[in-house]
Amino acid sequence: MSRTDVTLAALMLLAQSGDRQAYRAVLETARVRLVGYFRRRLSADPGSAEDLVQDTLMAVHEKRATFDPSLSFGAWLHGIARYKLIDHYRRHKRRETIPLGEDDFAADTDDAAATLARIDVEAMLARLPAKQAAAIRLIHLEGHTAREAADRLGANESAVKVSAHRGLKAAAANAGASEGERS
Predict the structure, then answer these.
(1) Which of 13, 136, 151, 167 is the most exposed place for a label (fewest CB within 10 A)?
(2) Tens digits of residue pLDDT in 54-88
(3) Domain with 161 in it: what CATH number?
(4) Domain carrying residue 174
(5) Residues 25 and 83 in one domain
(6) What confidence tier does 147 reach under pLDDT thresholds 50, 70, 90?
(7) Residues 127-143: b if buried by 16+ CB within 10 A, e if exposed
(8) How many CA atoms, within 13 angstroms, populate the side-chain half-sphere of residue 6?
(9) Structural domain total, the chain
(10) CA–CA gap between residue 54 and residue 35 (Å, rounded)
(11) What confidence score (pLDDT) does residue 109 get?
(12) CA pair distance 109, 2, nearest whole angstrom
């Protein structure tokens, strides 16, 4: 992890604790990185680049609780920016190959993959009912037994198992539907 990423991770941790100056510094640094990232990819459409910077900063604000300071801030930011760019291309029915340059975001690929996977999982869980998402999170992501999950949720053990099973089934169906939309 680069020195900048370590600094940004520390600032983001402070921001998550309510430090407004740290949060302002994080957003300003992210804005500078995002401007360059989107301008390189949308050079023919600078207005969309500016819009995507703002959309991404809003997503950073909305998803700030998901940031894990043990991982690269750049990878986390890149994951969010990448999804915003993909959404932009989908809205405008464009399909392009986007070459990644070394200077885009200095991120370890393992960190980036972990961050993207975490974002995917969080997005999948957000589409499920709260009971199902909680059961999946406790049993399959945090490694608790069904009994431990039931105790934490104040529910019957078999009900938690059923919720987790139905949630996984719904998530698989949602993933299948998403794949069908992309084809």
Answers:
(1) 151
(2) 999 999 999 888 888 777 888 899 999 999 998 88
(3) 1.10.10.10
(4) 127-182
(5) yes
(6) very high
(7) ebeebbbbbbbbbeeee
(8) 3
(9) 2
(10) 9
(11) 47
(12) 13
Sign of the Cα torsion 123, 80, 99, 53 reads positive
Q: How confident is the model at residue 122 (pLDDT cuts 50, 70, 90)?
A: confident
Q: How many angstroms from the chain centroid is the CA of residue 6?
A: 19
17 vs 146: CA distance, rounded Å: 32
How does DSSP assign the chain, residue by residue? Answer: --HHHHHHHHHHHHHHTT-HHHHHHHHHHHHHHHHHHHHHH-TT-HHHHHHHHHHHHHHHHHHGGG--TTS-HHHHHHHHHHHHHHHHHHHTT-----PPPTTS----HHHHHHHHHHHHHHHHHHTS-HHHHHHHIIIIIS---HHHHHHHHTS-HHHHHHHHHHHHHHHHHHHHHHHHHH-
- Pair 133, 58 in one domain: no
Domain presence at residue 99: yes
User: Among 79-83, 88-92, 171-175, 179-183, which is the least confidently predicted range?
Assistant: 179-183
Domain boundary (117, 138, 168) is at: 117
Instruction: Take residue 72 and report the two structure tokens written for it.
Output: 């690269």
